[in-house]
Design goal:
Number of strands: 7
Number of helices: 9
Radius of gyration: 19 Å
Shape: globular
Structural class: alpha/beta
Strand order of the largest sheet: 4-3-2-1-5-6-7
Order of helices and strands: EHHHEHEHEHEEEHHH
Largest sheet: 7 strands, mixed
Strand content: 15-25%
């Protein structure tokens, strides 16, 4: 879902598991779907952890725990490994997550998140563990992600860290632009360049 990213301040959903791969984020059987609707994939985010075989909610899974909610998913190291399926990013966006915080993301999944208006924020392992401890102590604790400043802050402790964000993707996120939107914006400049080039030839 296209949306402008500036400052996101929210409580968090903790997933303190390492090596969560894309098949766990959205199982392979959902890749056969003929829809691109993010809501469909969001409804099946972490399907095999979230629901029992009979379709009833798994009470022990965090997305079924009413104490935890918000726009931010805090996940363990090496999030999004495995298959490069973009459906995993669709599922995160469709569920409503705007930000995923981890100490390491698989490269392709990280790019897929950015392309689908989910911001992957890489923090130190120490900061990540502090976030997990803070959320465990108080599920309502909030985290502030400042996109213009490229900082993430644990409001309960006052600790902040900077995070890296490609300048082009930062511009796109802050202006709710996907790659096609950005190219369309450059149409006049492209046409001017082509005219100048053709004249020179």
């Amino acid at each position: 879902m296209k949306q402008k990213f500036h400052i996101i301040e929210s409580s968090c959903v903790p997933l303190p598991l390492e090596n969560v791969d894309t098949d766990q984020i959205i199982p392979a059987r959902f890749l056969k779907a003929t829809t691109r609707d993010e809501r469909y994939f969001g409804e099946n985010l972490f399907r095999d952890w979230r629901f029992r075989p009979d379709g009833s909610p798994e009470p022990g899974f965090v997305l079924n725990d009413p104490r935890y909610h918000g726009d931010i998913l805090v996940a363990g190291r090496n999030f999004g490994s495995g298959s490069s399926r973009e459906h995993a990013a669709w599922a995160l966006a469709g569920y409503g997550f705007k930000v995923v915080i981890s100490s390491f993301f698989a490269d392709i999944h990280k790019q897929n998140e950015l392309n689908n208006f989910v911001l992957p924020v890489v923090v130190s392992e120490d900061f990540l563990q502090e976030l997990f401890a803070t959320i465990a102590a108080d599920p309502s604790a909030k985290v502030r992600v400042d996109v213009p400043a490229q900082t993430v802050s644990n409001l309960a402790t006052g600790r902040s860290e900077s995070f890296e964000l490609n300048a082009y993707k930062k511009y796109c996120l802050m202006n709710a632009l996907d790659d096609i939107d950005y190219l369309v914006m450059q149409k006049d400049q492209t046409e001017t360049y082509e005219k100048t080039r053709n004249h020179a030839l």
